[in-house]
Request: fold
Amino acid sequence: MRRWLGGWCLLLTLIAASPAAAFDLYDFDLTAFEPRPFSWGGYGEIKGEHLRLNQEGAFYKLRHYREPRSNLNRLTPSLQLEGSYRRGIAVLQGKARATAWWDELGRGDQTDLLEGYLSLTPTPGRSLDLGKKVIRWGTGYAINPVGFVERPKDPDNPEESREGFVGVGLDLTRSRGGNLRTTSLSLVALPVTRDLNEDFGEADNLNLAAKLYLLYRDTDINLLGFTGNSRSTRFGLAIARNLRTNFTIHGELAHIPRQPFATLQADGSMVAATGSATSYLLGLRYLTARQLTIIAELYHNGGGHGSEELGRFYDLAHNGYEQYLGTGATTTLARAAGLAPRYGTPLVGRNYLYTRLSWREPADILYFTPAVTMIVNLDDDSFSLSPELIYTGFTNWEGRLRFTLLSGDGGSEYGEKANRNRLELRLRRFF
Reply:
C-alpha cells in the first residue's frame, strides 16, 4: 500500500512540476471533430445483363413483334453523386444520377436530379425543408401502402435511391419522459403543375399531407393523411415494434374512401367507375444467431387488378399479335401497348408474399453475403425468384451477381412478362 501511495504522489509531483508537458501529452484538436461545411460522395457502377426472353409472353409480343429474338444483352454504366453544404442552421443537399445503356436494339441515356433541397433547423425539434426530397413514410421494407407522397419502391431493389417530389415540409418534434416518449408532426405541401411534379397527378393543384408519429412504450405508431385534387383523399396507419432485439414486426394500412378507376372489358373497352380501396401490409424481420436475416411481408393491394382483368389484357395483346401475323395490322397491338403502363407495373395484382433471406459471412467467409428474394402472386401462383451473391472484400468496392427466374402459367402475371430469366453482374465503386 505504501509503494502504491508513493507512486501516485510521485506522479502528481511530476505533473505539478511540468504542467505544459503533461497537457501536451494529452492535447488534441477539438476542431478535427467538427462537421465539415461541405461533404460529397457517390458511386460509379457498371452493370451487364443477359436476358432470356419469354417468346410466349404478352409483354414480349408487344415489345418485340417486329424483331423476334430469344436473347438480349445489355450494358448499363451509371454515376450517382450526392453532396451537402452546411452553414449555421441551413443545410443544402443534393443527389443526381446519370445512366446510359446499350443493347442489340439500341441505346439511350438519362440524367435525373433525385434530390435537391434546403433544410433549415433553427432548433433540434423544428425543421423546414424546401425543394425536391424523398419523403419516406411507412414501416415496410419492400412495399409501403402509406407512401402517399413518394414514388413506389422497386421490390427487386427496395434499398436503391429514388427520385423525390418538389414541395415544402415542416417537422415538429417533442421528446419527454413517460410512456409517450416522442411525438412528431410532419406536414407536406406538394404543388402539381404541367412542369412541376407533373407525374404525381392532375395538374394545377396544391396537395397536403400529414403524419403524426408517436413512440409509445417502444412501439412506433404513425397516423397519416393526404388530401388534394391531384389524387384522391386517403388515410393511413403504420406500426412497428421490436418484440426482441433481433425480432421486429411491422404493418401498414391505407384506405381511400373514394377514387375513380377504370376496368378493362372483354371487347377491349374501358368502363369508368368510382369506389373505395383498402390496402394493407403485414411483415416481420428476424435476425438469427448465425447472422441470417429473414424479411417477410404479406401485401394486399386494394387498388390492384384482379386476375380476370389482367387475363383480358393478356388476351388483348395475344390477339393483337395474331392479327399482326395474319394481316400486318397493328391496331389491336397499339391498343394493348397503350394500356401496358397500367398493367405492366410491379405488383399490379391484388395479393403478394415477399420474402428475402440474406446470410452475412456464412462459414466465416469474410465480406461475403449470399441472399435470395422471392415474390409470389398469391392469386395466380406465379413468382419471381432471385438468388444473389454479394462481395465487399475490396475497399470501397461492391460486386453483385444475381440470377432472376420468372415462372408462371400463361395468363399469370410473371408468366406473361417479357423475360423468362435474367443474369446480372454489377460492379460498384464508392467514393
Remarks:
- The CA atoms of residues 405 and 421 lie 4 Å apart.
- The chain has a mean pLDDT of 92.
- The chain is about 15% helix and 50% strand.
- Residues 307-327 form the longest helix (21 residues).
